[in-house]
Design goal:
Elements lengths: L4 E4 L2 E4 L3 E6 H5 L3 E3 L3 E12 L9 E12 L2 E9 L2 E10 L4 E4 L6 H12 L12 H12 L7 H11 E3 L2 E5 H7 L9 E2 L2 H8 L1 H4 L5 H14 L7 H7 L1
Antiparallel strand pairs: 1-2, 2-9, 3-5, 3-8, 4-5, 5-6, 7-8, 10-11, 10-12
Length: 238
């Protein structure tokens, strides 16, 4: 982002007029909060410069940790990234405007924000599937936190959250691997609860809304939908 931003005295400034786009969902899910003079948000945002007054390509501002971006002038709009339309809050910065502080927050709370957004399926749907694991590791590096588990655990979580857009009972990775010209953006996400509910009634019963899970199980039985055998069932059968 050195072509759009520059650092001076511990602050980050705009090299020219630019706009930062915060997905509307961030505010709905409490991953972004309007503080009046700034927006506290997870730093996976979109940014675009306007050289010669014309909008350049929209780029990913990849700072996967909690940041505060200054709020001067804003509006609501929609942007299109990788064929997907996203409702956003537009933050506008004139040349040499102070955008954010150069230092960032650290700690388990920062790592937890990213983890929760992932488990809720709320990371932007314009992130390439194969890059998500790298973004997660970058979050842990920036927040100076270690979950003390091997990378395989992170990969398993991502694999289960990201689903086949045409059949959410199947992992996106399985669907992706069968494609001749795979598209790393053509996935569907859901929160952990919804994913488990669709996969297995028994697994779904670990959540608090048991009535909902029983209803799902009955519907699957009526429709003849085959469910995966959960670890819980294996224990009971044994």
């Amino acid at each position: 982002m050195s072509d759009l931003l520059y650092a001076k005295d511990g602050h980050i400034y705009a090299k020219e007029y630019l706009e930062i786009y915060i997905p509307e969902d961030y505010f709905n899910d409490k991953f972004a909060v309007n503080r009046g003079t700034s927006i506290e948000t997870i730093g996976i945002l979109y940014i675009r410069a306007f050289p010669d007054g014309k909008g350049d390509l929209i780029k990913l501002l990849n700072i996967p940790t909690a940041i505060d971006v200054m709020l001067y002038d804003s509006s609501d709009d929609e942007i299109k990234v990788h064929g997907r339309t996203i409702k956003v809050m537009v933050l506008k910065y004139l040349k040499d405007s102070y955008v954010l502080h150069q230092t960032i927050q650290k700690g388990r709370e920062v790592a937890g924000i990213f983890l929760n957004s992932l488990l809720m399926g709320k990371l932007p749907s314009t992130l390439e599937y194969s890059k998500i694991i790298d973004i997660w590791w970058k979050n842990l590096e920036l927040s100076d936190v270690s979950f003390k588990v091997p990378s395989k655990i992170f990969e398993m979580i991502i694999a289960n959250i990201y689903r086949n857009p045409n059949n959410t009972k199947e992992r996106f990775g399985q669907y992706y691997g069968r494609q001749t010209n795979p598209n790393g953006y053509n996935y569907k996400t859901g929160n952990v609860r919804d994913v488990v509910e669709e996969l297995s009634t028994f697994s779904g019963m670990v959540f608090e809304d048991i009535n909902r899970m029983i209803t799902t199980g009955i519907n699957n039985s009526i429709e003849g939908t085959e469910e995966n055998v959960s670890p819980l069932e294996k224990i009971i059968y044994y």
